[in-house]
Amino acid sequence: MEYVIEMIDITKQFPGVLANDHVSLQVKKGEIHALLGENGAGKSTLMSILFGLYTPDKGTIKIKGESHNIHNPNDANALGIGMVHQHFKLVETFTVLENIVLGVEDVDKGMLKLSNARKRIVELSEQYNLRVDPDAYIYDISVGQQQRVEILKMLYRNNDILIFDEPTAVLTPQEIDELMKIMKRLISEGKSIVFITHKLNEIKAVADRVTVLRRGQYIGTENVADVSKEEMSEMMVGRKVDFTIEKEPSKPSDVILSVRNLTVASKHGSKPAVNNISFDVKAGEILCLAGIEGNGQSELIYAISGMIPIESGSIVLNGEEMANKNVFARYQSNLAHIPEDRHKHGLVLDFDLSENLVLQTYHKKDFQKNGFIKFKNRLNHANRLIEQYDIRAGRNAKTNTRSMSGGNQQKAIVARELDRDPDIVLAVTPTRGLDVGAIEYIHKQLIAQRDLNKAVLLISLELNEVLEVSDRILVIYEGELVGEVDPAQVTQQELGLYMSGSKREEVTIDA
Amino acid sequence: MSTLYFLTQQTMFYSIPLLVVALGGMFSERSGVINIALDGIMIVGAFVGLFFMNRMQATMSGQGLLLLSLLVAGGTGVILSLFHAYASIYHNANQVISGTALNLFAPAFAIFTARMAIGVQQVTFINQYRIAQVPILSQIPILGRMFFTNTYITTYIGILILGISAFFLLKTRFGLRLRACGEHPQAADSAGVKVRRMRLAGVMISGLLAGMGGLILMVPVTTAFNGTVSGFGFLALAVLIFGQWKPSRILMAAFFFGLMQTIAAAYTGIPFLANLGIPSNVFKSIPYLTTIIVLAFTSGRSAAPKAAGEPYDPGKR
Amino acid sequence: MHKLLQSDGFKSIASSLIAILAGLIIGYIILYVTNPYDAYYGFMTVIRGGFNSIPRGIGSVLYTATPIILTGLSVGFAFKTGLFNIGASGQFIVGGFVAIYIGVHWTFLPTSILWIVALIGSFIAGSLWAAIIGLLKAFRNVNEVITSIMLNYIGVFMVNFFVVRTTYDSLRNQSITPSLATVPKWGFDTLLPNSGANGGILIAIVVAIIVYIIIDRTTFGFELKAVGFNRDAAKYAGINEKRNIVLSMMIAGALAGLAGGLVYLSGTGVHIEVLDRIPMEGFNGIPVALLANSHPLAIVFSGLFIAHLNIGGFYMQRFDFVPEVIDMMVAIIIYFSAFALAFKGVFEKIARKMKGDKA
Domains along chain C? Predict the structure, then answer.
């Protein structure tokens, strides 16, 4: 019995998309097997099938040599399969202990009896070095700790086949190293791991073998030692990918945005989310604010764009103080904002594409007269943007935005924001969840803006993006600026130290 | 002093049904389903329960009949809630529309059935359930006069329901799983909890309690049911929100609103208030006005179950 | 054919028709269970609706439809902006009272415009009453369903208080007739005598058209829809969501208030009875709006349809059936309309099978 998991010829169809097209996967006992593919390649779907969240339309699954039908997570658990999801499945208002036992609680005539569970969890957390307080509430603990809770969930259930779905998306480089160590520890205790990712470095660091999927299809399986990053990425994307971005050196000129002593309150707790921050963004440069999610970047951007109020400080845009002005006024001052959450803020999904493309400009003279909408102009505007930015939408300008793919939705937002010819662009994780082609495209657009002498403030969590795209990097940690580095000089490790708060220095502004 | 006794006794008649119905709403919403049909379910529960009482009071009597009618009312509530559950949980229907449909249906059904069955739209019953004095307990100084005199067995049943509800919600496996479904159904699902089944239970419990609550409301305050509960089901929703979806707070909120309702209905029996010279319509408005004022101050930070009202979509990751 | 099946308009109309069919069928079953012999005749009377007595029945349908088209517009308008205006009844009675008051006490105005001023008064009164709901929702995050219900009751108590003190007919315990302020008949009384039909129906239809234009053709409507669909995105876009929520409720309230004005100024002897009863016209607007999926022009038709059923229910009484069965039928229709999503899914499936789609 060589293989602990065999998924053979799996096919899964969703409305409009064939997520898995006769895909096969074979995982050996005791190995770390990476599942590589772009966003939308079908990796999460395949693993969700293994975990019982979906049932395949066709194909068989063999666990430890025997065929099984896995109808729900309970079945998967019974077979020893556990999964740590990309978006944690934790109930925020419950404690760590409650989250771990949910679904497998010890009861006495229906009443919860958690003392044995508590003991076991403490044992496990010491055995695997996954320290966490069982009585802490999830909303109180850090993202890294939440991930440990997810891992403990699997260990508590004695899972020995562990699936990790994009586990490093939310971790610092140091935490990633720790996770790699934990994985190796788990293997040494007899577990087998499947590790979904699109990050080639990590595959090289821990994985034994890698299976590549592309657009729902199985491309191949290789020994990691025998294959290069370039070869893996070519399998993943289907063509040669250039990792380095071609760009001219930047020529920064006037200061467009000037933030001084900005403090923004936090929704939870008394410590402010943004604590006395000062920095400038100049025309002709891409300034990146790097940091782990949850260190104040979101609040900073919402404050600059006017979506939330500030406690103190000043925000000067093109020479005018904005701190007391509303969102509308800031758009009038030639600000553009590609938001963090395209579904929550960036688009009204129930509008059609032409309506979303005028979301901030519907009131301008071009698009209305005396309050009545000029539909023809709107349509022409939309058609122009669709062509210029290559936005794919089933019914063009009239497409219901909800039905568009994530990549095209993001392209629509980028098109809309950049078409307004702004002086400064706030771009918050603009390439999150997109495939390589779309990522390349958006990077090109941002650099083009910078070359047109616009200012770009980029918020990013992807170290590659931070290092390749930006001209200057400021690191934010717990609401404060802790370092300014030159992307051409700094290493990923050093950047990671700043991001995790292990290294800090005074950040001064050239007045 | 006798005013205080009178006040507490009367307040019970309004607080307890508010408490019971709000607890029902709590189970539904904490499992993730918004149930605004509490008012309609109260109406139908009260109607069927009182109708049963009306038919049976010739052959049965006493507290036994009341308890039996209570069960009938509760059972009716469960049946009605199944319609809401079926639409909302198994077909991901808009929960507000489904609840509204039930609210529209209830009074029409009560009047229609009454007129077809007994020829008039009012259902009357003989109120033989008032307990003048609970043996022993009513002798306790002060508290005895407040809580154990001029009372109904339904009051104590209501407190019992509170105790059972709090216990079930917070101390049992069922309660843990139910709460998980209302906060993060995907987490519950991947932990192996059957979300739909939990939500069905939550809605059925809300039906049971709302149906019973309708009867509990009607028995002490009137002898003729006219197809309406004067918006009590919505007051119960306000109690739920004011009580931040927690049993202990719901109790306090229910008492507060019950007190307001008492002042509105019985102020003529309270010399201090009757002599103030305020028109009766102002008094009648007090419960509704205070609801608005209280909610204006407490709706800011909401502890509402995160997933309440969102149809559960297993495809969303 | 499959393109038709997939179009939004078709799916909405077809879903509504299926819901109506379901409601009618169950209504028939209810009639049959209560009285098998007369059930068929009773049911057919309901179906014939206004046509049971031409021309009077038809006039009654137009007369009954007028207020519920407007309260339907009120509820539907609020729905478009993401709000549930279950307070239309309160706005209705407040608006109605103000119209009566003006009609009775402002007789210094020429009769030709008195009714217009009175209607404008009802319009404004309704909007102010609803503004409370909007302000509480926008600025204090108070659930508008609860505020609306509370204001329904407070509105009734308040209006009763003022009727007694300003426009009271103590003999009959109701408001007095504002005989100089009556909505003009515009020929409806000659066309459809003895039915109460008057120019109000034309006013309601014109208002529906105006509401449609506002929602679909103006930038204001665009903002309202944005706020209704996604309040966060509206905030991101710089749209003042708080202002729009308040304005939206005010317009919804104005529409319901106008409904009240048209009813009590219809010159048909309708008065505000000083009872603790919430007027049903407000609640009846909800099914009208839901059945029409909140589309203003469709609301005219769903309003006429429900009025048609109600008149049918009136005539059905000659078979000894209780007219509340109509309300039950309407409630059942609404219940099935909640399944609209499921129906739409079915149409999608059929369309795809027809295309021979495997993807």
Answer: 1-38+320-359 (no CATH), 59-307 (1.10.3470)
